[in-house]
Amino acid sequence: MPFAVYALTIGAFGIGVTEFVIMGLLLEVSADLGVTISAAGLLITGYALGVVVGAPILGSLTAGWPRKKLLMALMVVFTIGNLACALAPDYWTLMGARVLTSFAHASFFGVGSMVATGLVAEDKKASAIAVMFTGLTVANILGVPFGTWLGQAYGWRATFLAVAAIGIAAFAVIALFVPRDEAASVTQEEGGALEVLSRPQVLFGLSITVLAWVGCFAGFTYIAPILTQITGFSDAAVSPILLVFGGGLIVGNLVGGKLADRYLRATVVGSLLALTVSLLIMHFAIHDKVAAVIAIAVFGAAAFSTVAPLQMWVLSEAKGAGQSLASSFNIAAFNLGNAMGAWLGGMVIDHGPGLGGIMWIAALVPLGAFMVALLAQHVHRRVSAAQPA
Predict the structure, then answer these.
(1) Confidence band of 222 (pLDDT split at 50, 70, 90)
(2) How far is it, in rounded angstroms, from Cα 363 to Cα 358?
(3) Residues 257, 130: contact at Cβ < 8 Å?
(4) CA-based angle 176:177:181, to the nearest 5?
């Protein structure tokens, strides 16, 4: 891979840390700002919804920008947002700073995916996306635990200052190593965006992404209480087990990218089926400690094996003007799935079969995504057969 792809990975790492590290600092934030833990938890929801809203807003405002210039500008927004988080005097300022930071998220991954695929040969495009998204997986394995420790030891504001420093580093390496490109026509970009978002295969891809990640986060959001209250692990054992989950994320991400380079549509369908099966396995495995640890690794691998194929699906179906906006929308779809998945898991706990039933209910959602993918395949074959040779 060209070094420019790894420069994008650094930016992805920083964004991954800032999105998820707040989960480990809810107690510190709530105590310092004088709010309840549930109110502090809304900082997670606010960020996810900010990603969804930020995709169309920034996509429209930056239509026609050179991609390198846009990536650097997004790192500036990211850095300022994290500095504002570190200096926030009250809860609502912190919420606003989190939303500001989240605006850079969808556009960075969306545009970064296009830049990464443009730097490599045709048969390595999905792998390039997977390498960039490795920054997100490493953020979960190393960045978030370190950021949590830093916040607990020196105050939660120190964590956001450290993440801002990552933003400065990412800005520097992108400026140095990502090649320049020409600005696109704003008129073509906006018109293309309107057209590309009406294409059936693009809409299929966005729908599949949302459904797949509703299932992922319905299960993952409540993995800690499941491990302690059902499996019987101690609180201290949760972090090492999550490292196992993170190892699965990295393996699944890279394998999914490799397979998608050769068999894109088959990999999308297969990874969705694997995710469904892994959640069903989790339902039974959580009653045994050894089986639970193994199943968590499989779940992590299956979950992230969907990422590069789904992103590549949308990119391949959105070729032409407006591709960057469609790509950003797919990143927003991932985060919409995150927010809806956490809500679904909470509903299962409060109004359904409870904590022990989350995994099998979560499995039903990617099963729905699997069915939508099969329908998309059928439509694709019919349209291809109807076209003249």
Answers:
(1) confident
(2) 9
(3) yes
(4) 100
